[in-house]
Predict the structure of PLP-dependent aminotransferase family protein.
Amino acid sequence: MNFATRLNNVETSAIRELFKLLGKPGIISFAGGFPDSAMFDVEGLKEAANKALTEEPGGALQYGATEGYEPLRTQLAAFMQSKGVKDIEPQGLIVTTGSQQALDLLGKTMISPGDKVIVEAPTFLATIQCFRLYGAELITAPVDANGVQTDKLEQLIAEHKPKFVYLIPTFGNPSGAMLSRERRMKVLEMAVKHQTLIVEDDPYGDLYFGEPPPPSILALSSQVPGSREWIAHCGSMSKVLSPGLRVGWLIGPPELLAKATMCKQFSDAHTSTFAQATAAQYLKSGRMPATLAKVRKVYAERAQAMGAALKKELGDAIEFTQPQGGLFFWARLTGAGGKLKDAGEFAKRAIEKGVAFVPGAPFYANDPDLSTLRLSFATADVAKIEEGVGRLGKALAGPQVE
Amino acid sequence: MNFATRLNNVETSAIRELFKLLGKPGIISFAGGFPDSAMFDVEGLKEAANKALTEEPGGALQYGATEGYEPLRTQLAAFMQSKGVKDIEPQGLIVTTGSQQALDLLGKTMISPGDKVIVEAPTFLATIQCFRLYGAELITAPVDANGVQTDKLEQLIAEHKPKFVYLIPTFGNPSGAMLSRERRMKVLEMAVKHQTLIVEDDPYGDLYFGEPPPPSILALSSQVPGSREWIAHCGSMSKVLSPGLRVGWLIGPPELLAKATMCKQFSDAHTSTFAQATAAQYLKSGRMPATLAKVRKVYAERAQAMGAALKKELGDAIEFTQPQGGLFFWARLTGAGGKLKDAGEFAKRAIEKGVAFVPGAPFYANDPDLSTLRLSFATADVAKIEEGVGRLGKALAGPQVE
């Protein structure tokens, strides 16, 4: 069979390799990119679903507007307002089938084959593949502990004139980094100066452990005249409530939302009204703040435990910035003491010792740093984290040649 | 903002015009393409959702496999087996976010810009737009009361060597036509002879009024050696259970399913596991046969009433084949007695009289027949159908010039 040429742009073997790592029994996994199922407010969602099917069964079960189920758009606008986006109205966002679909719609709406898009190095794996399927040429901007390096980013924008810039500014996947407020303001200024769309993907912003992070780039756009029309923002219920609902949203300039809605009409007609009505009832129930408080507390403990264990068990053979939120540690093998620097090789040895993580290379659209790795602390409890990091220590201490 | 060039391939004004027609209060609408909300088995779905969240909350709320939730794939395979597809196994299908997504994935997986795809004239509006967004050049094959004209179709395949052929063989939207068994066999033979993928979209096949239709092209493929590897089949829960779940499925050769799964991973990661688990519990509950029996009976009565009313009120000014299933009448204004032949003009007059339908022109990828129209009998009860068709009669009897 003769497939579309766009499939040649995508390499999936890296992903398949990652998934293969997880099959071994008894393994402790730091490889996932998902929240802990034990955190789901099952009772709250059960009540919400029941209420949705009781109060407005037609709305929950019939075809719905492509833009989204109106009561959910209203709830999501209020949710965004509570996070500092003062001017948002329900019609200023569209509901997407998870924020993955928001990325897909941005690709479909914006990217012609050969267009350039700037992403962080490293960035979310599925974003790389998603944009490449639409023919994007990806340019990478470097990231440090304060997020994307804005001076470099501006040079790249000036040089490449990208269709848009894609950032995960808050507790990014995989970097875990938090873009400083100062840099957020610089991003807004360069959006206006270079008339360049900035896509802010924000699935992790609510998962902070201590002080809240700076307001989102979208929220800060009110302080930079003219910037709001150059900002698109992707939100998601997946990391804070449930990925299984597949409820995300896209905020952007009206013309972009109109085109994305047209594309969505032919992608899946609309997001499950059943899931949307359930999410709307859940938000309306007022249980969200308690749910958020709970997940923040649990993940904060786990992040603390993982950081301490990594320092204890791997010492100066690994370097990382302690994350202030999100789900991930992003780390680099230093090679200190003649230990391994290759994270791919380390991953293989770790599997043999009964612990899994994801090597960092696939998260780079270009020029991978082979010494990097991503560790999720979300799904293992503190005891498992300590046991798993102990196994990592043994794996790194093992013989240099297999 | 500078959008992707692929958006230039799509004309949405036709669709927007259709939707505008429906705003007027008191209107009787034959314009929709959706099932009657009153047919939804709300209690059954409520129980199914509750069971899904009680028995396996993790599975229903966590991220899931892109291919689909395993218990649903098992149920869907059994459902297809019950419809004569003997050799289907759970891994022989992937779950899609409604069958609209199956179309989108076929487009993404198969169509390079400039590729030719053959569709019926007329065919489903959103298919035309969906494939054009991927750059397809659409070639149209004529349809009569027995479905696509297979002699013409084979000529077109030989001439254009299309990437694939898209058919809605059973009670098609909008044609309502049923492809005869003889022609189904011919389609299978030409698939093998010309090594051409045939996509069978089958959302309406379960909605038959009297005798069941012939087996699907997929089911019949077991009788034509070598044909199975050239058949893709799209199924849907939308017309028989609930569109709001957004649960469809795609069956096809393993290589095609693998590529479509990769594309789906970057489109929406997976279909809502919450909706999938609910659908799986519903199918497992055994309520589906009774639900199907009910909708068949109700829609059969409405189709009967609409056919009789059209004959009585519009006489020889309209011609149509009485549908044997599905949701639609496809009709043609004859101009008899000097009456209107332009269905667009008729639609405007009908709205003035308080009744809406969809003119047929937008359902043609090329060379629209302006005298055609589509009438849905699904959402109005018999009394409303008679009242609405009465209004159609008055609209057609009105003065020739506004």
Observations:
- Chain A touches chain B through 73 residues (CB under 8 Å).
- Chain A has a mean pLDDT of 95.
- Chain A is about 45% helix and 15% strand.
